[in-house]
Amino acid sequence: MGGVAAATEQRTLTITVPPDATGRTLLDYISSRFTYLDRTHWLAEIESGRLSLDCANAGGQKNGAPAPATTPAAAPAQPDAVLCTGALISWTGAPVEEPEVDENWSVLLETDDYLFINKPAGLPVHPTGRYRTHTLWNLLLERYGSLFFVNRLDRETSGVLLAAKNSAAAWEAQTLMQSGLADKEYLVLVEGNFAHELDAVGYLENDASSPVRKALRFVSSDGTSTPERVIDAGARAWCKTQFAPLALLALPGSDRTFTLLRAQLFTGRTHQIRATLKSLGYPVAGDKLYGHDSEIFLRFIDGKMTDDDRTLLVLPYQALHAARFSISLPSGTLEGAAPLPAFWSRAFPDLE
């Protein structure tokens, strides 16, 4: 597998103090506003000189809190510094090492306005989290300039991604998708014997039982799955996915059984396929969030996954692949189709 070597980047985040933070101390505000670090860690960041406070450029009197004329721009901050509206807080975090990614993307089809791209698993599309330069967007930038991605794929999802070369083409494709003139087909590998075709129609809602806040669960609308609690209808998202079994597979060296499914989306909700299959009792192979144990996801983001976790997952990435994407343009239908990733058949030789 080819890859981009790990790189180290230091980033600076700058925010403007809002009116409701006027009069609060820097430590109180920053630790309550950005909770991914606790108060003790934020104090250490301030005392190490990683935060600066610019009150001189806050614009004078703000909601009764004058900007102190004696404070130099971007002065090293103190934990008990009193904030004024409009002041600038800058935080230069410790250098972040970007993980290595698979850069083996390929072009499936190219026209004057569009690109169908085969994205490998593990490659983020846009900058996010620890990934700033190791993204598909950045890899494509050198050759094509700025592109407009029409559909979205999670970092671990592989397969067909449609990109427009200009804003007019992007608007056209998005409009056609919203009008139902695009067809997306996925292949997904799940644990268990998924024996029959199924139209999964229902709702996605927050999964209160999961230790991961962003996790969702599927609730069928046909009466086969009943919500455990009464929820506000606004918190639900209606979804429809059609599943069809293609092959029953044995995992070599174990008694575990898996099914290769075709999944067709009729709605495009976040985590729709993965959350639906988990709720139906067929977790996606390799899925750290919607697999057998959601705690694996927490260990993954902390860099503490175990060998037992990897054995349970079977695959290094979630086995969800955007196999085909077609769109009906006024000039004709365009379609991109991507083969299964090689790491699937390495674990399941019968897929070859």
Written description of the protein model:
The chain has 352 residues and is an alpha+beta fold. Among the domains are: 8-95, RNA-binding S4 domain (Structural Genomics Hypothetical 15.5 Kd Protein In mrcA-pckA Intergenic Region, Chain A, Roll), CATH 3.10.290.10; 188-322, no CATH class. Helix content is 19%, strand content 30%. The strands form three sheets. Strands 7, 8, 9, 10, 11, 12, 13, 14, 15, 16 and 17 form an eleven-stranded mixed sheet that branches. It is globular.
List the SSEs and their pairings:
Layout: E1 7-9, E2 12-16, H1 26-33, H2 39-47, E3 51-54, E4 75-76, E5 88-92, E6 96-98, E7 106-110, E8 114-119, H3 136-144, E9 148-149, E10 158-164, H4 167-178, E11 182-191, E12 198-206, E13 216-220, E14 237-250, E15 257-265, H5 272-280, H6 295-301, H7 307-313, E16 320-329, E17 332-337, H8 342-347
Parallel strand pairs: 10-16
Antiparallel strand pairs: 1-6, 2-5, 3-4, 3-5, 7-8, 8-10, 9-10, 11-15, 11-16, 12-13, 12-14, 14-15, 16-17
Q: Overall 3D geometry?
A: globular
The multimeric state of the shown protein is single chain
How would you spell out the order of helices and strands? EEHHEEEEEEHEEHEEEEEHHHEEH
**Biggest beta-sheet profile:** 11 strands, mixed
Number of helices: 8
What is the rounded Rg?
Answer: 24 Å
How many strands in all? 17
Give the fraction of residues assigned to helices.
Answer: 10-25%
Mean pLDDT: 86
